[in-house]
Amino acid sequence: MGAIRPRPERRSSWGGFSRLLRSEKFSRRIETYRPVFEARQDAFRRQGMPQVFHSLEDAIERSSALVGSPQQIIDKVLRYHEQMGHEVLALNSDGVGLTSLQHRATLELFQSDIAPVLRRQIPSRAF
């Protein structure tokens, strides 16, 4: 069994479909992810793929990226549920651009502050 680590302080979160990042200020969350977003945009350009989003802010606004406070993330997922009726949310947790501690902290935040609310708000039907 590994050593028990102290739990990081919870404040707010940054989320992306592939990652969540917590930081005190929204602008800091965006700036932490900007290099990863831009690297992916460059890779898409090199492969000749069309640019869907003209900036990170545009991607946050119009894409499925989960960026914001836990409540903002909850609100966005609930809007999607209302529009599409889905009951399953798939999150890739690759942690690109995050330290191991940031990655773990964001997953813990999602599990403790976001997932329980979504489970209550979007009950799962038996298939």
Key structural traits:
two-stranded antiparallel sheet; disordered N terminus; mainly alpha; 127 residues; 51% helix; 4 helices
Q: Can you walk through the features of this model?
A:
The protein has helices at residues 26-46, 56-62, 70-84, 100-121; strands spanning 14-16, 19-21. The protein has one domain (14-121). Strands 1-2 form a two-stranded antiparallel sheet. With 127 residues, it is mainly alpha-helical. The relative contact order is 0.19. The longest helix has 22 residues, at 100-121. The termini are far apart. The protein contains four helices and two strands, in the order E-E-H-H-H-H.
Quick description:
This protein is mostly helical.
> What is the terminal separation in angstroms?
37 Å
Radius of gyration: 16 Å
* Helix content, binned percent: 40-55%
The total domain count is 1
Given helix and strand content, the structural type is mainly alpha
Beta-strand portion reads: under 5%
Largest sheet: 2 strands, antiparallel
Topology pattern, helix = H, strand = E: EEHHHH
- Give me the side-by-side strand order of the main sheet: 1-2
Give me the count of strands.
2
| Number of discrete helical segments | 4
Please render the helix and strand layout as text:
Elements: E1 14-16, E2 19-21, H1 26-46, H2 56-62, H3 70-84, H4 100-121
Antiparallel strand pairs: 1-2
